[in-house]
Structure formats: structure tokens, C-alpha cells
Design brief:
The structure is a single chain. This protein has about 450 residues and is α+β, with helices and mostly antiparallel strands. It folds into three domains: about 100 residues, Rossmann fold; about 70 residues, Dna Ligase, domain 1 (2-Layer Sandwich), CATH 3.30.1490; about 250 residues, D-amino Acid Aminotransferase, Chain A, domain 1. Helix content is about 35%, strand content about 25%. The protein is built from 15 helices and 23 strands. The strands form six sheets. An eight-stranded antiparallel beta sheet has the order 14-13-10-11-12-15-22-20, with helices on both faces. A hairpin with a 5-residue loop joins strand 16 and strand 17. Helix 4 packs antiparallel against helix 5 and helix 12 packs antiparallel against helix 13. The relative contact order is 0.12. The model has no long low-confidence stretch (mean pLDDT about 95). Keywords: ATP-binding, Biotin, Ligase, Nucleotide-binding. This is Acetyl-CoA carboxylase biotin carboxylase subunit. It comes from Paralimibaculum aggregatum. Pfam families: Biotin_carb_C, Biotin_carb_N, CPSase_L_D2.
């Protein structure tokens, strides 16, 4: 099968720019899509062609499947790469792409559907021996007795989770029975609006937990490999802020088990392309449990690329074109340590509230070995209130973790951005925080760091 001559990128911002670079390295023409708000965006300027697909609201542009497929047909694109977010994990969109005679750069629609339904994914994981947290089937917000029974079986504290979607949307902690019905109802409503599916279920909440994950890659025929693991524990609102590879201070038996079971899961569903199997690691018990599988490229994929030397996006495109020969597990080698931070337009002092606006000045560190900045904006561009507040990802690699963190600190010291509020100064302080330096972070650590700062600010006032 020949390589795709032209690929349409059904996304925007940083990930669209990243995919354009991969296309260029493969000699493929890249087609960008954009809303009216993004007419002058960086990904539009970088692409070989660009098509306006609608007004600023995402549901009228980047979430308009018909407009995206129409743009691909009009430009002669042979394939569509969804990136992450928007329609990246929509089995319906993937099926529409195939029905239109276009190649989908990602797993098969039925795989997306199976793993995108979190309840179903838990059952599949359990079948292949992946340990899962206690949880419930789908619950009915209108059945108080059924809710109470399901919650009692799972145990408090628990998480109310949307069966569809991702990015932390639709996840709420419930500590006591009194708030259960209210939270289940609110989560179901949010899930219906965000994902078109109001199905929710309950899952045991681990108070002192780390978020670890395994990068997998499959060929769609039952053969799959892993490319190591990552730690993504430093989060706010269940959304990752700092990610690193490999996961530090993880017992080797646990590391081996999550890698092996992640590959077994990918192989069992005949996974095609890049995917991530996510786990919660209970700090108290030392056990790791399956959370979910993300059927797309992850925001944090660069740290895996840095330690493996693999172009994961390039692999995605080549695999979808039938031009990536199978790779054996022993061919994947990891070297050194990599860390990534997400620089966002937000106000940490105001509970990380997004802070859209125009970027007046922007200066990145000079290019250097072991340093990478992935961005989708330039000086003069705007961070729109219609989309994610990500400005850039600053990624570093070092021969070991200490060297990587030192390199990250130096890189952040050289970033200059003006005109908008960002989390840059907070990220710089996080790099020096004992929770990160000593690798004892949990999913609650970022908020604990911020609360410590608030206490210091109150004491100094």
C-alpha cells in the first residue's frame, strides 16, 4: 500500500502542528481545518492547505463530522488524523470516515467503541487479567434505591464517572451517601451535554494514589508492544499538568505487571496504532488497578518519544498506511528520563481558572539537545475562550531524573511570555517542590502545593 499523499488533520493548535511536522517528515501534504476564530492560527500557516469548517464554537466546527469529511473530499486527502480531544475517540466519526472511503489514522471504530465505554472496557480488562478497581455497572440517576445499593457494594469514598469521554470531564468524588444522588444526577447531565451520552457508573476512589500509564502500539492483528510507562500524577481537576517517563520509584514487579497486562489488553482487542492504558497506583497498598484505555495519541506522548527515540505520530501514520513493519518488544529500548509540563493560560491563584487573551510577547529557550517545545501559538496570537487553554508543552530529557528536572528548571527560567496570565511561575515552583523532587507525588499533590502557597501568602499578609 502506498503512503498517503495527503492527510487532513481534524484538530487545531499544538497537536495539529505536531501532526503537520510528522507529515512533512514523511513527505505527505498536510491539510489543516480551522474555525473562523482560528483563521490566522499557527497550524493554518504551517499546513500546505487549509479549509474553514465553521464558526468559533467547537460544536459548529471541530466537532462537525460532516464538515470535516467534506473538507477531506474537497482537498483530495486520503486519510484523516484526529489528534486528541474533539472527535479523536468518537467511534461514530471513525466509522463515517471509513464509509466515506478515507483512511482513519487510529484504531478501528469497534475498538474505540469497546474501550470508550468505560464500563465495557473494565469488563474486557478483567477478562485478560488486568486488575480493576471495584466498580458498578451503569447506574440510573432516577433510582435512589439502586444507587444506594451500588454505592454500598463499591464502598465510600467513591468516584462518579461518565462512561464516555475523557480529560477528567465528568469525574466527581463522593465521600458520603448524602450527596450521592445529587452528584450522579449532575454528572449524568454533564456527560450528556459533553459527550452525547449520559451513562455514569461508580468506582472505588483511592485517596493516596498515583496516576501511571503504559504507552502501547498495535498493528491491528493481535500483535502489540509497549513503549514504557509514564507518571502523570500531578493534576488539577483530574487533568494532567506534569508528566514523566519512565514512572519514578515504581516497584519493578508492579512496573512489569502493568506493562505486560497493557500489552495483553491491546492484543486482545486487536488494537491498531498508538494507545494508552491508564492505571491508578495505590500508594498505601502498592497495588495498581486499571482505569481506562485512551484510543488516541496522548498529550504527554513527547516524553515517551524522548526516551525511546520513536516518532509515535509518524508510526501512527505509517501503520494506518500499511507501511510500518511489526516491531518486536525487544527492539524497543528506553534511555534516560524525560519530563513534560503543560504551560497554560490560567490563574493558579484563582483555582486554575482559564485566562484567555492575546499573547503580546513570547520567547522560548534556544534549541538544545534534550529540550523540546511543542506549541501552536506565536507572539500576537490569541488564546481563545472557545478552546483549551494550552499554550505549549515544555519537554526535557536527561541521562537520569535529577538531570532532567535540572534541565527543566533551566528551560522554564528562559521562557518569557507577556500579555496573558499563565501558570509559568507556578510550574517553576512545582519543579522545586519536594513532592516532585523526591518522587512522592500523588494525584492530590498539586493542589496541596498550591494550598501551601496560599497559607504562606496569608501568613505574610
Amino acid at each position: 500500500m502506498p503512503m498517503f499523499p495527503k492527510v487532513l488533520i481534524a484538530n487545531r493548535g499544538e497537536i495539529a502542528c505536531r501532526i503537520i511536522r510528522a507529515c512533512r517528515a514523511l513527505g505527505i501534504r498536510a491539510v489543516a481545518v480551522h474555525s473562523t476564530a482560528d483563521a490566522d492560527a499557527m497550524h493554518v500557516a504551517l499546513a500546505d492547505e487549509a479549509v474553514c469548517i465553521g464558526p468559533a464554537p467547537a460544536h459548529e466546527s471541530y466537532l462537525d463530522a460532516a464538515a470535516l469529511i467534506r473538507a477531506a473530499r474537497e482537498t483530495g486527502a486520503a486519510a484523516i488524523h484526529p489528534g486528541y480531544g474533539f472527535l479523536a475517540e468518537s467511534s461514530g466519526f471513525a466509522a463515517q470516515v471509513a464509509e466515506a472511503g478515507l483512511a482513519w489514522i487510529g484504531p478501528a471504530p469497534e475498538t474505540i467503541a469497546a474501550m470508550g465505554d468505560k464500563s465495557r472496557a473494565r469488563a474486557i480488562a478483567a477478562e485478560v487479567g488486568v486488575p480493576v478497581l471495584p466498580g458498578s455497572p451503569a447506574v440510573d440517576p432516577g433510582d435512589p434505591a439502586g444507587l444506594a445499593a451500588a454505592a454500598e457494594a463499591v464502598g465510600y469514598p467513591l468516584l462518579v464517572k461518565a462512561a464516555s469521554g475523557g480529560g477528567g470531564i465528568g469525574m466527581r468524588v463522593v465521600e458520603t451517601p448524602e450527596r450521592l444522588a445529587e452528584v450522579v444526577g449532575a454528572t449524568a447531565s454533564m456527560a450528556a451535554k459533553s459527550f452525547g451520552d449520559g451513562t455514569v457508573f461508580l468506582e472505588r476512589y483511592v485517596g493516596r494514589a498515583r496516576h501511571v500509564e503504559v504507552q502501547v502500539f498495535g498493528w491491528g492483528d493481535g500483535h502489540a508492544v509497549h513503549l514504557g510507562d509514564r507518571d502523570c500524577s500531578l493534576q488539577r481537576r483530574f487533568q494532567k499538568v506534569v508528566e514523566e517517563a519512565p514512572a519514578p520509584d515504581l516497584p519493578e514487579a508492579t512496573r512489569q505487571r502493568i506493562r505486560e497486562t497493557a500489552v495483553a489488553l491491546a492484543a486482545s482487542v486487536r488494537y491498531a496504532g498508538a494507545g494508552t492504558v491508564e492505571f491508578v497506583y495505590d500508594v498505601e497498598s502498592g497495588e495498581a488497578f486499571f482505569l481506562e484505555m485512551n484510543t488516541r495519541i496522548q498529550v504527554e506522548h513527547p516524553v515517551t518519544e524522548m526516551v525511546t527515540g520513536v516518532d509515535l505520530v509518524g508510526w501512527q501514520i505509517r501503520q494506518a498506511a500499511g507501511m510500518l513493519p511489526p516491531v518486536a518488544q525487544e527492539e524497543i529500548r528506553l534511555a534516560g528520563h524525560a519530563v513534560e509540563v503543560r504551560l497554560c493560560a490560567e490563574r493558579p491563584e484563582k483555582n486554575f481558572l482559564p485566562a484567555p487573551g492575546s499573547i503580546a510577547t513570547l520567547d522560548w529557550p534556544e534549541p538544545a539537545e534534550g529540550l523540546r517545545v511543542d506549541t501552536g501559538v506565536r507572539a500576537g496570537d490569541a488564546i481563545s475562550p472557545h478552546y483549551d487553554s494550552l499554550v505549549a508543552k515544555v519537554i526535557v530529557q536527561g541521562p537520569d531524573r535529577a538531570a532532567a528536572l535540572a534541565r527543566l528548571a533551566a528551560a522554564l527560567d528562559r521562557v518569557e511570555i507577556g500579555g496573558i496570565a499563565t501558570n509559568l511561575a507556578f510550574l517553576r515552583r512545582v519543579v522545586d517542590a519536594p513532592e516532585l523532587v523526591e518522587a512522592r507525588m500523588t494525584t492530590g499533590s498539586l493542589l496541596e502545593i498550591r494550598e501551601r502557597e496560599r497559607a504562606a501568602e496569608r501568613g505574610a499578609a
